[in-house]
Amino acid sequence: MPKKDNPRANAGTKARRTRRKRRSARRRSLRDPQTHRRTTTEIELPEWLPPAVATHAQQISCQTASDELVLRRLASDPRMTQVWMELLKKKRLNHASTENFKYPPTSETNWSANARAIFRRAQRVERKLSPADKLWAKKLKAYAAMIGYAESLTWEKQLPIQERALVALFDRIFELARSESVPVSRPVADEKRSHMLEMAKLIRTDAAASSERFGPLIDAAIAYEGDADRKAPPEGEPLFVHRQRRGDERQTAFVLQLVEATTAIFGQPLYGIVSIVTNVAFDCRDWTDARVRKGTKRTNPLLAPGPTDP
């Protein structure tokens, strides 16, 4: 005889299945955004990617699926071939290629974004002309030089300097592409900075009175001022703008900071390269070298730190 359906048993089975599905979906939703996976074996790299850059890309660790997607585009989008070809192009003399690169890199001590930010801060303090400010600016410059020198030691020294510069640029591009930075206008920056700078000034007073070239007080003051600059960039920083601009704020911030980075690493803003990289990073086609040039012409970051030993 065929078995009779048991409504109570069927209802219980359906309820258990529903609970299992909910638990499974909840586990997936909790796990995916927090996944920390190395991309060493997950990214297929094209042959045209410079070997030094390819090695570095394989060593980058992505915290989110979005990070991995950005890394894949930067490492394998065919539009990037033009970027690497241009940066590896040699100068020509009398219609013949020379051994000199068209875009030779600057000193490696210039490549640290942290060192450049501290050095620009020193230049702003130096303009105030008071003896205390002069002394503090001197300490900031020494600190910037120390950081620039320390970070320069992290690049693979067995590689030619041009290849090390390509790796430094790729590393900076990826960090900027996955950040959430946006431009900040003068009124907003002034409002945000007032309280933070007042607190930083108290720490700085004690640090400036110290005879130590480096020390805990100086570290604390520099860290506090750096936090103020990140939350509300002052004039002279790449993200400082006189007024908010139209368009995607994240893309604008990326362009402003990348122009500053290419200038520091290669001594030139490289508008054409910045436009290509921006289109790849954000998977769009809106940026041209003319638009990059126009969008950054009013931005005038102060000089990057020179190759000064700490």
TL;DR?
With 310 residues, the chain is mainly alpha-helical. It has helices spanning 7-31, 51-59, 65-76, 80-87, 113-126, 131-152, 161-177, 186-209, 216-231, 249-266, 271-281, 289-296, and strands at residues 37-38, 61-62, 90-93, 96-101, 184-185, 240-241.
Give a quick set of tags describing it.
single chain; 310 residues; two-stranded antiparallel sheet; two-stranded antiparallel ribbon; 6% strand
Notes on the protein architecture:
The protein is mainly alpha-helical. The chain has a domain of 189 residues. It has 12 helices and 6 strands. It has a two-stranded antiparallel ribbon with strand order 1-2. A two-stranded antiparallel sheet has the order 3-4. The protein has a two-stranded parallel ribbon with strand order 5-6. Strand 3 and strand 4 form a beta hairpin. Helix 7 packs antiparallel against helix 10 and helix 10 crosses helix 11. The radius of gyration is 25 Å and the shape is globular. The chain starts with 6 loop residues before the first helix and ends in a 14-residue tail after the last helix.
